[in-house]
Task: structure prediction
Amino acid sequence: MNLHGDWTDDDLINMYYLANYRSDLRCGGSFIAPNGEVAECDPVGDNPCCSSHNWCGNTAAHCDCVGCTDYRVTCQKFRSDLRCGGDYLAANGEVAQCNPDGEYPCCSPWNWCGITADHCDCADCADYRSSASEYRDDYRCGENYLAPNGKPAKCDPNGPYPCCSQWNWCGNTADHCECDKCVDFRNTCETFRSDYRCGKGYKAPNGETAKCDAFGIYPCCSPSNWCGITAAHCDCFFCSDYRIY
Result:
């Protein structure tokens, strides 16, 4: 509330949308957001970074110091210094991978991206190149059409038909890319989170409200904001099923 006892816009947002950041710009540590978790900073606001003193701001002391956290939206899954795995985080805040389309697509047990057998073929190596295609030659896509990798087929984001329509065809028209059930695979930012949270109060890497992976093992969002596959996730009144049939 403001000094006159009126509800502010921030108050209303926090009440109804369970924001993961606070209107007083405090963050981290023991400062809890309305959603019950440790407070972050608004990634699309004027103060997107949390300082080591637990204040949101936009200076180097908030964004670039040791102990700072920058919540601005980024989709990069790998690092320019070729470090990967372990304690090496990418710009998206998750454990760094190696660029599957780059010169060094594999992560060694010593946390370096490379292309040798010591990076790609050992017991603890991680090869980020796809060994089986995610796409079908007949341009079908979605839940009931499996790709060679055994998962629901996607559309090639770098090909002429990058979007999956609600009728399970890859194409490039508005009916493939812009409808409510369409999936545009050209988007480099994920629309879902690796922790399986979804819905209001949970932002995806693309900065929007998180969905569930329509092509993953947990494609539905429950009213309690968890992705899953049970009737309590997919078939209830407030459930959201993101699969394409």
Notes: The two ends are 46 Å apart (CA to CA). Confidence is low (pLDDT under 50) at residues 1-5, 9-17. The first helix runs from residue 9 to 17. The helical segments are 9-17, 60-63, 117-120, 174-177, 231-234.
